[in-house]
Amino acid sequence: MAAKRRSKIWDVDRNEVTPESIYLNRRRFLKSVGAIGSAVAINGFACKPADEEKADTATTDDSSSKPTPKISEEIVIPNTPTSDLYPAKRNDAFTLDRPITDEVVAATHNNFYEFTTAKNRVWKLVSSLKTRPWTVEATGLVKEPKRYDIDDLIRKMPLEERLYRFRCVETWAMAVPWTGFPLRELIKLVEPKSNAKYIRFTSFNRPDEVTTQRFGSYKWPYYEGLSMEEANNDLAMLVTGIYGHELPTQHGAPIRLIVPWKYGFKSIKSIERIEFVEDQPGTFWNDLQPLEYSFHANVEPKVPHPRWSQANEWLIPNRSDSRPTQLYNGYEEQVAKLYG
Length: 340
Ligand SMILES: Nc1nc2c(c(=O)[nH]1)N[C@H]1C(S)=C(S)[C@@H](COP(=O)(O)O)O[C@H]1N2
Ligand SMILES: [Mo]
Description:
The protein has one domain: Sulfite Oxidase, Chain A, domain 2 (Alpha-Beta Complex). Strands 3, 4, 7, 8, 9, 11 and 12 form a seven-stranded mixed β-sheet that branches. A five-stranded mixed β-sheet has the order 2-1-10-5-6. The protein is built from twelve helices and twelve strands. The longest helix has 17 residues. It is α+β, with helices and mostly antiparallel strands. The structure holds ligand MTE and molybdenum atom. The ligand Nc1nc2c(c(=O)[nH]1)N[C@H]1C(S)=C(S)[C@@H](COP(=O)(O)O)O[C@H]1N2 binds next to loops.
């Protein structure tokens, strides 16, 4: 049966409120759902095909027998043992010069090439990826290589919420509330050796769960890198949540990088391995198109992409909502010293 497009469950008229007030309403709503102990009420709207229902009940896996929290058709939050940590306290040191992007807009405009190159369809395809159980390996030049269960790791870390601008190299931009912890907290935990000069991040490679990794032409898994100085900068964050709850898979569940002064492709999603290395590592886009995507990939309005200008950006979902690109995406004060 055709899925009916539902309006957002907290039922406010989008034209009457700012994205920020929608988001604040939602936070309150989620809290109250948490208070009654389950999200069944939200999931009750779902109109699933019969075979999907069967698959749901046939499983003996404990975690998947719980209902999957669903905020709207577009936003499905994976079941996690750490949902009690959201919403985390906002760190007010990070402010915006633009409205927070509407949550559904952000959740339906994604780059996640493991699933599709079509930004508006990623959210429809991500459910095949299992984001629990999930481990993150910290390895390479560290005191003791270790593999962390994602929820054990999240509980060890100081979660907070930050409002950041986000700028894709393709010129679209957004502003969202991320929840996570400074990357430097993980660095402290794993104690890198003094000859560790760079960090290499690697995403998943699961051809059994993700069709494109079976048939596609890219060389998976996706990988990225930062220098240790960049990784230790206060802005660099490992992110596990957005809009006051865990990441929906399209945003890179269960854990992704956010480096807001760099183009979006540096902010690698769904990380499985964090490796400390001596030499500058290769990166996915730089290895594919070295003339178009550099290792540093800092947001620089005066440095055009070979095929388009970077002077301006536009705020999703509206191409005409255009404004000048800011050096380092407006984070010059915090990061210029890294490149001086
Ligand atoms: N693993 C992985 N991470 C990725 C990508 C990807 O294709 N695969 N795309 C990058 C790009 S180009 C952007 S702009 C951002 C998009 O993040 P969002 O969908 O949460 O807005 O994710 C980045 N991280
Ligand atoms: Mo991007």
